[in-house]
Each structure stands twice: as structure tokens, then as C-alpha cells.
Amino acid sequence: MARQSALEKKLSDAVKLLEKNGYTVTPPAEPVSIDTTELNKRKLWTRKQAFIEELRKYQGTYSNDLLNDFFRYWAESNRTFTKMRFEMQKTFQLDLRLKTWYNNDLKRKRYHTPTDQQRNEKLADILTT
């Protein structure tokens, strides 16, 4: 039998004294294993909801498609699900980022190939002249 350390001896004596005085001493529960990835996802989900609420304030100013694209881009999480893209920025001011996103969206639409609807409108203009 291995010899008890001084601390183990004191603990054993304290337990015996407690039990002698009518207390019930139970051993500590096994440590619970927590999947940190799942825990991080839960925390991230809460912050994503808060980000959505902030974006809802701009629904009258910007189109829903633009806000959805903005959200999909900036709410992308890192590999460990601890932060979203916008949280990793040194600076991030939502209203200014939205203005820039909107202006860049206008530029992209201006210089991209026309959509089917735009082609049909041009064709209609040509046919009516």
C-alpha cells in the first residue's frame, strides 16, 4: 500500500470528522467534457443574431438583396468559430461599410454584362424605333 501524502491524510481525516458529525460526503463528479467547437458555434450564433438586428435598421435605406450579400460576406466565421469576419477587422463602422458596399455594388452593376431583363429592355427599345 502506497503511503499517503500529508495533504491526503488531512483530507481523509476531515472527511472522517464530517461523517462522524452526520454529514454525507460524496466524491466529486467526473469532469464534463465540453466540445469547444459546439460551444463556440452557440456563442457565435448569438452574435450573428445581434449583427442581423443591427442590419435590420438599414432595411429602408438599402435593398434586402444588398443587405443579405453584405451579411453573408461579413458574418463568415473563422475556422474555430470564434469570430466573424467583421470582428477580425481593426476597424469596422457598419454605416460606412454599408455605404462602401452599396457604392461598389453600383460600380459592379454598371460595368458588368447586362442581365436578361436589361437585354430585353434594349431589344424592346430597338424594336419600337
Shape label: rod-shaped
The amount of beta strand, in percent, is under 5%
DSSP helix count? Answer: 5
Radius of gyration: 31 Å
Q: What is the averaged pLDDT score?
A: 82
Number of strands: 0
The end-to-end distance, rounded to whole angstroms, is 105 Å
Structural class: mainly alpha
Q: Which percent bin holds the helix content?
A: 55-70%
Element-by-element helix/strand order: HHHHH
> Largest sheet, described in full?
none
- Spans with pLDDT under 50 lasting ≥5 residues? none
Please supply descriptive tags for the structure shown above.
0% strand, rod-shaped, 129 residues, mainly alpha
Explained architecture:
The chain is mainly α and 129 residues long. It is rod-shaped, with a radius of gyration of 31 Å. 1% of the residues are buried. The protein has a domain at 35-114. 60% of the residues lie in helices and 0% in strands. It contains 5 helices and no strands. The model has no long low-confidence stretch (mean pLDDT 82).
What's this, in brief?
This protein has 129 residues and is an all-alpha fold. It contains five helices and no strands.
Topology, element by element:
Elements lengths: L5 H15 L15 H21 L7 H11 L19 H18 L4 H13 L1
